[in-house]
Amino acid sequence: MKNVFLILCVIGITFSAKSQNTVKAPEPFGPLPTQKQLDWQEMEFYAFVHFSLNTFTNKEWGYGDESPALFNPTNLDVRQWARIVKASGMKGIILVAKHHDGFCLWPSAYTERSVKNSPWKKGKGDLVKELAEACKEYDLKLGLYLSPWDRNHAQYGKPEYITYFRNQLKELLTNYGDVFEMWFDGANGGDGYYGGANETRKINTLEYYNWDETYKLIYNLAPKTLVWGVGPSEARWIGNEEGRAGKTNWSLLRQKDELAGKVHYTEFMSGHEDGEKWVPGEADVSIRPGWFYHATEDDKVRPLDEMVDIYYESIGRNATLLLNLPVDRRGLVHENDEARLKELVSTIKNDFKTELLAGTKISADNVRGNSTEFAAQNVTDGNKKTYWATDDNVKTASITFEFNKPTAIDRILLQENIALGQRVKAFNVEVKVDGKWKTAAAETTIGYKRILRIDRVEASAVRINITDSKASIVISNIQAYNAPTFVRMPEISRDRNGDVTIKSEEGNPVYYTVDGTNPTEKSTLYKGVFRYNKAVQIKAICFNESEKIKSAVKTAKYGASKENWKIIQVSSGDLKSADRIIDGNPNTEWAFGNDENKLPQQITIDLGANLNINGFTYLPQQVGHNLNLISNYEFYTSTDNVNWKLQSKGEFSNIKHNPIEQVKTFKKTKARYIRFTATAAVAKGSTVSIAEINVIETL
């Protein structure tokens, strides 16, 4: 009987093992990523480089009539670019090989408008080739941007240009090795040089380029290349140039509707839950206000606080992050940009220094077929191919991590196994503190990666509750961290009378200087509003007294205060409320122009005294959906309000998608009066608005 019992036990164990081995993996659900898209998503972070004729003309968009002879960097070093990108943890570089002005950074056989007719390397250089070699040396992937719009080409808008455009695509995709991403900008058609025609040419973006045929060409030449942007692309714009994805972010898109013009770009931030195609989001942003280098922005590099937020709201929200580095006229990444990158890398590395869930006791209330192949423990094994899965039709489930002792945490990272589709629609995070569960976060989508910043707690356990899912749950990775306290910079503002206000979060004390030096805890303690109506550079820090750590330095530069400024004439609009454009408050605005008072429209300001100025700034309306943006302008100065001199005219390039403060400089001049004229509006609007007008003083 004993032998019979042993045999039955062996048979039972064997049967049980076979049963576990035969548990079927979850079926893929919904639209799925290709291997190319999976590889691209895993890159997470890569660089954009804008460097061309615009760098030397101080423009964002060239008109197309600029001479190639202007392109003459004094110390071009693409290896410096690659070294900085690699040290920053980025995985590749996308180079703007040709922007809207049509100038090519490689010696294209199809145009004379390229580096071959520039003084750089006596016309023998090939910047694309040099960068491709540098990327290979530093183990980075190379991507390329080729503008479909060409404001120089005489045939733009005609079928002949499409042949030219595709010929250049062939050159780029066959002469420089693998290209991980081909980037097509959505800006297409408008005014330009066009071989001397100097006219406006409008095209139907979706029809003119015959994108289906263009994409076939790309895939035949370079099947490994992912195509971004216009047409039936494999990745999408995130809908803004601020580097921020929506809290809800599906990798799906109703692309058929998009190609039919039925999707507004603001929907790209979140994607579509019911999208029929896998089109993940790429969040693009420049490290400075502009995309090309401008010396006036050397002190306007995005602050560390903002860069950290961008990281968490792009990569941490199921998107990739494409960070632009505007190479300067030397041909180098500027020192200020490199310094900010180093600060960002240091912060992110410290945030994710020590993972806390590996080694905890892990349990789940449902495991697919009770199989170890789909066990809860898979989410901490460091293997991206394993995952915790639930039974079919189980769309809500919980996974719990129990610590050996209360542990401080303030970051939660989650990843779905997106090879099987994006599924989770809602989840929350609970922490057990002093024996009681409390909700730390309640969110929607996860996707490839979701990172949550929560208030620091000493928790004995963490529980992730998937509260809604399209199909059975497949989670490949869950991590927790205790990131160091991050002290945010103070906010500095000054009104038109010169009254300075400095605000900090959580009541941290603020220390500041007005002499340009960096503040310390021994600098002047901010105690309340103070008046400083001269030109000044204010620097301030917040200090966390309990942990003895300080914020990065916040810098604010101001000219003389506007207390003596006065609006003396407007061509339309309400004169009484026009003071809003000189009140020092970026959140107020004033509008002028309408169907009866068509553009151009102007406003005249008395500065109260003669000032030496060499430029002006226009801050567009910052609040609201319809910002009534000015696209073209003229700026005049006068010392007597009788004789006027035109100092600057042109366009505010790319203002539609990047409505930041516009800076225009000119030769130093003396002015008592200024006149700003709006000559055209975005989308041919008749009403335009202004948040603030300022002048740049020369001291």
UniProtKB/TrEMBL annotation:
Electron transport as UniProt keyword: no
EC number: 3.2.1.51
Enzyme class: hydrolase
UniProt KW keywords: Glycosidase, Hydrolase, Signal
Highest taxon above the source species: Bacteria
Residue ranges annotated for the F5/8 type C domain, each copy included: 345-483, 542-698
InterPro entries, alphabetized: FA58C, Fn3_assoc_repeat, Galactose-bd-like_sf, GH, Glyco_hydro_29, Glyco_hydro_29_N
Keyword presence, Hydrolase: yes
Pfam family, one: Alpha_L_fucos
Family designation: Belongs to the glycosyl hydrolase 29 family.
PANTHER family, A to Z: ALPHA-L-FUCOSIDASE, ALPHA-L-FUCOSIDASE-RELATED
Name of the protein in its database record: alpha-L-fucosidase
